[in-house]
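Researcher: Going back to the complex we discussed earlier. I've cleaned up the inputs and rechecked each line, so this should be the final set. Can you rerun the prediction on the complete assembly and write out the structure?
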Amino acid sequence: MAKYECPDCQFVYDEEIGVEHEGYPAGTLFEALPEDFCCPNCFVREKDEFISIETT
Amino acid sequence: MKTLTFESPEKGVISFVDKKRWLWQLSMVYPLFPLVGIGVHHLTGYQAALFLPIFLVYGVIPLLDWVFGEDLNNPPEEVVPELSQDNYYRRLLHLTGPMHFISFFACAYWLATQDLSWWGFVGLAIAAGVASGLGLNTSHELGHKANKLDRLVAKLVLAVSGYGHFCIEHNAGHHRYVATPDDSASSKMGENIYEFALREIPGGFKRGWELEKKRLQRKGKSTWSLHNDLLQSYALTAVMQVGVIVALGWVMLPFLIIHNIFAWWQLTSANYIEHYGLLRAKRDNGKYESCQPHHSWNSNHIFSNLVLYQLERHSDHHAHPTRQYQSLRHFEHVPELPNGYFGSFLLAYIPWLWFKIMDPRLLALNHIQGDMNKVNILPRKRSVLVKKYAEMMASQPASA
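Model: Rerun complete. Updated structure for the full complex:
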């Protein structure tokens, strides 16, 4: 499981947690997110801008 | 006054006192401005007093903006985390929520129970709509937060103006596509506010609905269910608006029509002036560059900012949407509106005057310098505007 961070608002996409409200359940791999995924917190940074911060 | 301090290894002790701390309460009570008209009408019996609220918004506030001018102060970045976490500022937003309901019901009651001429009725109904339009500002600030309580208050306040689709459309639609031709909530050079309204209002509803539909599909839920955030807010709108008709009679129908139109018109007005003609460049991969401070029109006029939770520091807001209102910054060399929002709205309502003032201002921006390729321009007006401003373009170096 890995974590990726939004470069603007520092929201962390944690694969173990997902983003339930947006329809990405716990365990959803970052790779599996749609290409048009954008930060569910600030909505102004896209998937390809997220930074990998941790892999376990 | 509360002093925030930060010990910096390089700069020593940094102290900051937010001189606007208590003044933000103006934003909290501002939605009650229609009550001024009701109060003066009650005391004097003059129906003309029902136009006082509109005069306050479009006459007095632009004047106060002109008199008090701009505030260019920023909190030191070192204390921003502490400033942003101070719950006082957030509580003010929560307390603003009920103000919109009070204003709506007070105006409805007054209109239904007083013997008014048609023009007195229309005057107060417009003021009620403008106050509910301000609810979109309250919901805007709260709707950018991840906290459930903030989002709940935002959803409830949106119900007053019947604009339940606003938060999702604004965050995932407008913010994502702002300052591009794809955004229904970014106005184009040469587009007047009336034709913009015909694109922005249905465009916002459609995009909001589509975004919510996709979100629910991902969750395996039906669009037509109570899981739909839009329908939850619309349901409350229906209860409120049908409720006042049942309670106060059919006289509420013209009130609601006027109220809703002018509430929506407030958002249209703000959207129109906030990104007029501004365009984000495309990156090599075909995607638009991230939104920068120069992709929004900004205003530092202190008075209107104090009644709008600093919405007018729009450059920072769009570049960093989760930044709290009390921490928004002024930037040098960003597009600046000629007055605060309410004064700028008046300009926008007179298209020839708006174009006359804003088009040269737009083309003179540092990142545009007369280059029409860097402007979000109405396609059918492109050739006319290029010709009109050819002289200005010729005096500037062309860019790729």
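Model: Worth noting: The CA atoms of residues 36 and 53 of chain B lie 6 Å apart.
Researcher: Good, that matches what I expected from the previous run.
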